[in-house]
Amino acid sequence: MVAPQGVPTRPFGAFSSMEPVIQAPHAPAIRKEQRIDPQRLLAVLAIMAASAGCTATAATTNTAASPQSANLVAPQAAIKETSSMNKEIISALAPTGVLRASLNVGNPVLANLDAHGKPAGISIDLALQLGERLGVPVELIVNETAGKSVATMESGRADVGFFAIDPERGKDIAFTAPYVLIEGFYLVRSDSPITSNAQVDVAQFRVAVGKGSAYDLFLTRNLKSAQLVRAPSSQVVVQTFLDQGLDVAAGVKQQLEMDTQGMNNVRLLGERFMVIQQAMGVPKARGPAAALYLRTFVEEMKALGVVKDSMTRHGIQGAGIGLAADPMVDPLAGQ
Q1: 274 CB-near residues (< 8 Å, 6+ apart)
Q2: Which of 24, 53, 129, 276 is 20 to 30 Å apart from 141, CA to CA?
Q3: Does pLDDT of 14 surpass 80?
Q4: Same domain, 160 and 38
Q5: Of 310, 314, 331, 294, nearest in space to 93 by CA
Q6: pLDDT-derived band of residue 165, with 50, 70 and 90 as boundaries?
Q7: Which of 174, 195, 106 has the alpha carbon at shortest distance from 145?
Q8: Is the pLDDT of residue 54 over 70?
Q9: In terms of Cα–Cα distance, which of 68, 294, 16, 283 is closest to 155?
Q10: How far is CA 256 from CA 92, 208, 209, 237, 251, in A?
């Protein structure tokens, strides 16, 4: 097996960008009184179906072969909502009988490979919780960049994913409201004349970004004069910035801090240039009811403290929890 680019090989083994990791959804327990009320959810789904004139359907195409059942471990503590839950929702979100979740281990706030080479982080915790809610096993698909994670789901090889909300991605993906908010920052050399974000967008400056990242998409739309130089992944943005003598490196604040630890010749500018809204997403082809269910699920996870507990458990600092939102509302509505 070949390790993903930019992801170090771990003692347990490495995962290719499309190698599935099968594991049982041992998600943090939720008390019975905290679980989603299936009757309340069905009422919301009925309203949605009536207004949209349709119901959710399973995806018509599946480009990835279903994992062998012998390799799957069924949920041991699945929340048995399936008897009263609209079966079409389960079929839409897990048409193969397995919930396939696309992960991005290139964002340290969301997911990483642990000391044993296994994926761990907020994204994994939410994927496992969702598998429990649906009563199906979970397949974790590891990608080393956000762009590849999006491509994995858009190609039909995953059912849900964990991405930053963006209008370009929103053409094919239905997003939830954000569950985590992180910040995009600029990095410059210590002797750089640049002291504020407003000074970056100048024709003579070159800015390193991770190809296909949320901040790449954002800066592509918003920088009018500066030139973007796309590094293969967010993990090598700082190295690209240094090796090519670029003027600015852009990225997630935590990634930039991690990659410049111990360096005394660089500095972060004093303010963020964007807030990156990390959300879950499902292909729009799966239907509006599937999107509504996923939005409701994320709101429950925020309200019940699951997201907060996950951030604490994984030692995530410098990130915020997304505000409560109406699951009936598309976060990209009007954009």
Answers
A1: 183, 184, 215, 218
A2: 276
A3: no
A4: yes
A5: 294
A6: very high
A7: 106
A8: no
A9: 283
A10: 38, 12, 11, 8, 6
Token pair belonging to 236: 């090598």
- Encode pLDDT of 197-230 as tens digits: 999 999 999 999 999 999 999 999 999 999 999 9
Structural domain span for residue 264: 184-275
Q: What is the CATH number of the domain that holds 154?
A: 3.40.190.10
> What is each CA distance from 138 to 11, 55, 87, 99, 158, in whole angstroms?
23, 24, 18, 5, 11
Ranking 85-94, 135-144, 170-179, 231-240 by mean pLDDT, the lowest is 85-94
310's tokens? 């996950």
Let me know if residue 14 belongs to a domain.
no
Answer yes or no: do 172 and 58 share one domain: yes
Q: Quote the CA–CA distance of 233 and 211 in Å, as a whole number.
A: 6
Residue 52 has pLDDT above 90, yes or no: no
Model confidence, pTM: 0.73
- Are both 156 and 28 inside the same structural domain? yes
The CA-atom distances, in angstroms, between 310 and each of 108, 119, 126, 301, 314 are 13, 14, 9, 10, 6
Type and span of the H or E element at 279: strand 274-283
333 inside domain: no
Q: Is 214 exposed, middle or buried (0-12, 13-18, 19+ CB in 10 A)?
A: buried
Q: Angle at CA 118, nearest 5°, toward 263 and 114?
A: 30
- Predicted local confidence at residue 184, as pLDDT: 96
% of residues, the chain, pLDDT over 70: 74
**Amino acid identity of 128?**
L
Flag whether 329 is in a domain: no
Q: What residues have CB less than 8 Å from 309, skipping those under 6 apart?
A: 28
Q: How many domains does the chain have?
A: 2
Q: Are residues 143 and 249 in the same domain?
A: no
The continuous run of DSSP H or E covering 20 comes out as strand 20-23
Residues 93, 131, single domain; the answer is yes
Of residues 114, 164, 118, 126, the one with CA closest to residue 142: 118
Q: Specify the pLDDT at position 85.
A: 55
